[in-house]
Amino acid sequence: MAKKRTQPAKTSSYVGTLDEKKKHARKIVRGLARLFPEPECALIHDSPFQLLVATILSAQCTDERVNATTPKLFKKYPTAEKLAASKQADVEKIVYPLGFFRAKATNIRKMALVVTEEHAGEIPRTLNELVALPGVGRKTANVVLGTAFDIPSGVVVDTHVKRITNIFGLTTSKNPEIIERDLVEVLPKKEWIKFSHRIILHGRATCIARRPQCTECSLLKICPRIGLKPL
């Protein structure tokens, strides 16, 4: 079985020198920070374990639907130990509304078992240990490390980040690993965690996928609007 990748792929090339890219990225960072000074993770959780479970469940599903489902799940299985001891059918019944319920139930139960047996019930705090857990990829690991432990292990690339960073001209890739590599190269490390949260909020509020509100956007002057129709 191939080992999971723990480093993002090689970067793609895009217009501008590295210094120009970094200068442009800093302008984007400052603009987003003015819009969303204290961004928070959209997934509701009370512990690193709950955040990890919620992030696994959020695959191909909205955060809103996950947040509507996890209270029942966490009430019944508040710790890794309790989830590890659960029955597959019981967990499937709870996570059914999230789609791919069998696979998701399997992943979170297997993850909980490994955390219980190999990490004494505590969520590990390194990228390599996290991506070794069942159902956990680099994106999920970055979410947990950044949000739960304030460890900037990389930049989370979800659908909003993928789409909007292309519009901003911070990358030309559609590959999440390459996008992450591009962003890590130009963003200050201290901004890695909050950058993704802010992009997601911006994508929901203004830079909406099917109808971006460019004329109402405070970032319009610094946004090259790559791939969008002229105003």
Structure commentary:
The chain has 231 residues and is an all-alpha fold. The protein contains eleven helices and no strands. Helix 1 crosses helix 11 (192-205), helix 2 (48-57) runs antiparallel to helix 8 and helix 5 crosses helix 6.
Oligomeric state: single chain
Percent range for β-strand residues: under 5%
The biggest sheet amounts to: none
Order of helices and strands: HHHHHHHHHHH
DSSP helical segment count = 11
Spans of at least 5 consecutive residues with low confidence: 1-14
Q: What is the share of helical residues?
A: 40-55%
What would the average pLDDT be, to the nearest integer? 93
SS elements, strand count:
0
Per the principal axes of the C-alpha atoms, what is the gross shape? elongated
Structural class: mainly alpha
Q: Give the radius of gyration.
A: 19 Å
Distance between the termini: 50 Å
Identify the notable features of this structure and list them briefly:
231 residues; mainly alpha; 11 helices; 0% strand; disordered N terminus
Give a quick precis of the structure.
This protein has eleven helices and no strands.
Topology:
Blueprint lengths: L17 H18 L12 H10 L5 H14 L3 H5 L3 H8 L5 H18 L8 H5 L6 H12 L9 H10 L7 H11 L5 H14 L26
Helix pairs in contact: 1-11, 2-8, 5-6, 9-11
